[in-house]
Each structure stands twice: as structure tokens, then as C-alpha cells.
Amino acid sequence: MQCPRSPRSRDLWLALIFLCLMSFPAAAAAKGGAVAEKEAPQGAGRGYPKVAIASIWQNPAAWEGRKIFLEVKFLGWKGGAPHPSITKSDWAIEDGTGVIYVTGRRPPGLDPLADVGRRLQVWGTVKVNPKGVPYIAVAQVVVIPE
Amino acid sequence: MAKKRLWVFLAVLLLLVVGPPSRAWAQAQWTFMVYLDGDNDLESDAIKSFESMAKAGSDANINIVVQFDRAGKDPSYEGWKSCKRFLVTQGMQPVEAQQLADLGEVDMGSPATLTAFINWAESSYPAANYAVVLWDHGSGWDPGTKKLLQALKQATTKAEKKKLLQELQAAKRARPAVKWICEDESHGTMLSLADVKTAINGAGTKVQLAGFDACLMGMVEMAYEIKDAGPAVMVASEEVVPGDSWPYDTILTGLKNNPAWTARDLGSWIVDKYYEYYYNIERGGMTQSAIDLTKMDNLAGRITDLANAMQSSWNSDQALIKTQAQNVMTAINQAVIRNRHSLRNYPGAYGLATYFPIYGFDPQYNANNLALANNTTWDEFLLDYVDHLVGSWIAVAREQSQYFEEANNIDLYDFCDKLVQGTLARLRYTCTPAPYNFEDISQDPGAVKMSILGDDNFETVMLPFVLPFDLPFFGGNHMEISISANGALYFVPYKISFASQPIPSLGISGVNAFIAPFWDDLVPSAAGENGGVYWMRKGTPPDQRMIVQWQNVPHFIEDTKTPKGVTFQVIFYERSPDILFQYKDVTFGNPLFDYGASATVGIQRNSFSGTQYSHNSPMLKNEMALRFRLENGRMVPILQLLLLD
């Protein structure tokens, strides 16, 4: 395709490029906020977007209902984020950008106090409780061997 | 002078006749103590529970007394970080101006602290009856690292911390199982079951009711532990407890309106109010029971009888075991004052759980001198079970019993019920290749296209209205079947997880038994006009078939769908318990998912047994068929099954 020569069409192209540049961050923000989503290695998240926890906190409504993949450290009952109060046994995870609670069965043997720091892969759906606190309803957890 | 003496004499006489202001007259009927341990990540929920208690508030008959330890992470109500005592009145807020005392930083994980609270409440707020509720986390059977955690918290030098960390790692590897309640994060402590007994026993007060507003405390082990400590009634949940905790407002309002209630009355009321509060909440601890602790000696005796019978006669005298199991059921019926449970989530939760591990008995079950282990042969049976009985019919009963989020806990009554009903047979499906003969129903005018609209959704078919034959599944008859968007069929009205699990595995979503021709994250609603999920009854008696077909159904990826979809079907037969899976096209145009690369194919009977063809492995082909044949198979130990799969 030839580059347009006339001043009018050049202005048009510049306007289009400007609009594209402006719309990219807007779209990113609409998807989940300013914290960039990390690209998971091919196959690691099995087709689910790898998400930074901070981006969920920045716009919980934008993430509500979405299925996601997280690579995290287990915090158990050490907290560090608002508790969604789904059950008293909900457990926390952190990924360096933030902390969020997970509700659902922990892998057998993963102790909520003694196993703090274990590396996990978590698949789940983002939910938001009536008070606006986001959390993850777990679908699958893989404990990474130490 | 004589007149004066007469007046004094009359006054003394009056006092003798009427007596001094009686303590009994000033006494309330109940002092309701709450040991509110919010010195951890549940601080905000603890505040909500305080607010709930304040909706009811104390009156002349009822003292609501709280010892509230906070972590100081929640800024509300002055964000204090210490331990305060309150007499909760209507509308009270947990703030300094309302406190009776500030104890500073106390160790809520110490039995001495609990004893002191009970003693203080009794002396300050005497009543005819006492209830004490322990509010906090309740653990499953977790590693016994209590002392190490405590020591680590108090360690001052780097070398000391490093050494303790190494010991902690070693302890974790050893995984001694210890069950506890009331974690105090500031001190790194918690109360073991024995600590609870020591604390209540140590108080001079006669506590009539002990409540546990914490997860997983409704166990024989807990009830037996405190049976001689004073309380006649225990209230606890077999399953996890929701963050909203007990609905104290309705519980305490009921008690205020009925101050003459006995501990049994109050226990039953707590169970009912808890059940009503959580009835309409999708996920929550829908189990709660009031237990008569005076019946625990009898129950422990029957447990020993059953444990002995299972050890000695598992392969020789099934009748003896069934008799002893029936006796345990009778003893549980006598002990359970009131039990409410969600029939959908926990159909087999009858009031008391017990430790019955899946993968192996942990000798540290008795790490804290557990009374039930000391006084019954239950622990000896568990040891024997792992060594000899995992392939027996007893294992089949255990597999089929109600279990909880802590999967090492099963409902004891339900287990005994399964023993009583049990047979020696371990029914099992075998999976073999079969001739491929796809019966496409998608264009058949008699087929029903299902309106599975949403992602991950399911639709339930009421079988008696559509099938003239029973749908076979391990020989059982089912009234309805749920057909999931995600390529699976099952018998409960839940969404199955979008992430497929290996077979067998503990269900995350509550779907524990299923038929999975292609369990994966499928999106039938995205198939458009040319696809979806269909079912149809075909053939004539006695050779009818029920066919369920997923037609051109794409895979979910990054909030959208794969370029093409898969087509497969399941066939049930009127004349045979066999189940046939047929695969016309198993490619999505994405190697992450093609040929079953992210799917589970197989049949799961329950969370501990099943037959798997593949899991997250591209082992399917276009135009292939798999036949699952029901067999009265040989006894296969659970562990071996797990290894095989």
C-alpha cells in the first residue's frame, strides 16, 4: 500500500494513528486496569489469561465472572487483603502485585499456616462479594514441587 | 433505750425472715460468653459478629459477655489492637468508651486465657446457666507445628530463626496431624482439642453449653474430648463455617425471649437459626448440630466394638460388622439432639464427623493426647485399615460416605449406614475401544436442542418423563440427570468446574460422580445455529437408547472461542448398563485443546474411585468409540487405583 501524499490525507492518517494510540490504553484499562497482564508461556495457563492480582483490585467489576490463571505464592490464613467472608477457611494468595482471597478446597495437605510461601498455579473465576470485595472461586490448584 | 432495742430486734427479725437481697434474685438466667478471637485474618468478620450480638444486647435475664482480641488491621471502631472485654448491650459498638477492661495483648491460643475469661465472666456476671462460644478459625488435621511457630515468633537472633525454620520444614515433612481452634497470630499459638478441655475444665464454672463458631469442629473427637469438662451440650459444624459466622442477633433474641431455656433448648435453637440464615446462600457451611455430651461414653464404646469387629472380621463375619455399625448409628441418634444440613450439598451429614484418612493414617493423630484415640480402638483400626483393608468392602463404604472440605473427615453415621447397606462388590467400569457408529441426532426432528445458554452452565432432564428405562450408573437408578455445557453428565444440580480434574479426584464444585465423554471448558452457546447440545430417545422397547450429543461445540479461550468445535456423543442403553462414548471430530483448531489435550475422559463413581481413559492428554481420535462396561470387579485398593490412574 502506497503512503498517502496529500496534506489532507496525511492529516487523516496522523489522526487515525493518534486515535489508535489513544484507544490502546483505554481498552487495556477497560479489561482490567493499568497493571499490565502478563503473558503466560504457551500452554501454562491452558488458554486462560494470566492476570496480575493488582489489576483485579483496580477494577473488580471488569473482572467479575472471568476465568483466569494465576501463578502465586500461598499465604493461607496470613491475610493481607480484605477478606471476602465466603467461609472462615478462605485462603489468600499473592503474586508480587497484590493479595487476594480464594474460596474453595485447598489441595490436601496444604496447611494454611505452615505452608505459607508454597508456589501454586491457580485457575478460577473472579467473583465479587456484596461489599465489592473481589475473590477467586477456585477451579483447580496445582502445587509446584519445592 | 428499750424502745430502741425493740426496733433493732425487729429489724434483725425482718432480715432473718426475708433474708438479705438474694444473689439468686439478682442473677440472670444465662451468661452467654463469646471468646472472640479476631487476632488473625478474620478480624473483620469478628467485628461483624460483635455487631450482630449488639443487635440483641443483654438484658436482666441474659448477659452477653465478650472477650475480643483484635489484630488491629481493620481500621473500623478505632482500629485497636489489644484484647478488650465487653458486656454487650443493644446497639453497642466495640470501642474503648464501651469496654469493661482492656487486657492489653493476650494470648488467645493459651488455655489459661480461656479459663481466666470463663472465671471472670462467672464472677462478674453470675447466672443460672452458662454458655461459652469459641469464635475463630477451626483447622482440619494440620501439621503439629504449634510450638515451632511460637518459638519462631519469639526468636531474636538470625541464627536461631534459621534453625527454627529448618525444624519447621522438617516438621512439615513429617506432617504430624493436629487439630486446633483459635489461632492467635500475634503469639503464633492456637488451642488444641486437649487445650479446650483443659481450659473449660480449669474454670470453676459449670458451663452447660460449649459452642464452636469455627470450621470443622463437629467431630466425635471434639465432643469426646470435652465430655467430662462440664458442658452437657456441644454445638458445632462438621463442615466449614461461612464468614458471616453464627447469626447471633436471632440466636440471642430467642434466648432473651425464652430465658428459661435449657442448654438443649438453646443448642437446638442455634442449629435452627444457623440453618435458616444460610438456607438461601449458594455456598456455605450448611451443617450444624447440637450434641448431648453425656452420651459420648456410650458412643465411644460402640465405636470400639465396631473398630474391633472391622479389624477381626472384615473378611469373615459381615453380619457382625453390620450389627456393630447399626449400634453406632443408634448411639449417634441418641447423642444428636438436633441436626440440620443442606440436603443438596451434604445429604449424608448427620451430626458428627470423624477422622478417617484417605491416603494413610497419620500416627500423629494422637499428637495431642487425643482422648478418643486413648480410650477407643478407632486409631488402631485406622492403622490396620491402611495396612490391610484398603481393598475391602469397608473401603467401598468409606469411599461412598459423606466427606467434607477437610476430606479426611467423614460423617460417622453415614459411614455406618453404608456398612449396613454394603455389599462385597466393588462395581467398576472397564474401558475398551468399540466399533465406531455415530448416530447423528443433531438434524433429527425428534431431538431436543438444549438451551444451555451460559458458559459453564448445565441443564437438568427429569428422566421419568422422558425415559421408559432407568438410566444406569453403577447399578443405581436416577430421577434426573444434569447435562453440562462442559461435556459431562452427573446427578446433582451444580455447575461442574471448567477446569477438568483427573479421575478420581475430590470435587471442587460438589460434582463428585459423573460421566465425562469430554470434560473440558466448552461453550455450546457459541456454536450458533449449526451446533449445541442435543438429547434424544431412539429405538423401540426393549432396545431403546438415550443419546446426548455435543455438536460442533467450541472451546473457551481468552474470553472468546476457538475457530471450530468438537462433536461427540454418549449413548445409554435400555438393555445394558454399558455406556458408549463416540467421537466424530475432536479438533478445535488449537493444539492446546485438540484430541482431548485439556480434557478428562472417563467415569467417576465418587471422589475416590472411577475409571479414567485420559486426562489432559491428546489420546482421542476422530471417528473413535469407547465402551464403558460395568463389572463386578476384583477388589482394588484405593491407593493402587490412584497410582494406576
Which properties best describe this structure?
heterodimer, A: 146 residues, alpha+beta, five-stranded mixed beta barrel, 3 helices, disordered N terminus, B: 645 residues, Rossmann fold, 4 domains, nine-stranded mixed sheet, seven-stranded antiparallel sheet, 18 helices, 26% strand, elongated
Structure description:
The complex is a heterodimer of chains A (146) and B (645). With 146 residues, chain A is α+β, with helices and mostly antiparallel strands. Chain A contains three helices and five strands. Chain B has a nine-stranded mixed β-sheet, sandwiched between helices. A seven-stranded antiparallel β-sheet of chain B has the order 16-30-27-26-23-22-17, with no helix packed on it. By secondary structure, chain B is an alpha+beta fold. Chain B has 18 helices and 30 strands. The chains are: A alpha+beta (146), B alpha+beta (645). At the A-B interface, strand 5 of A face helix 3, strand 6, helix 6 and strand 24 of B.
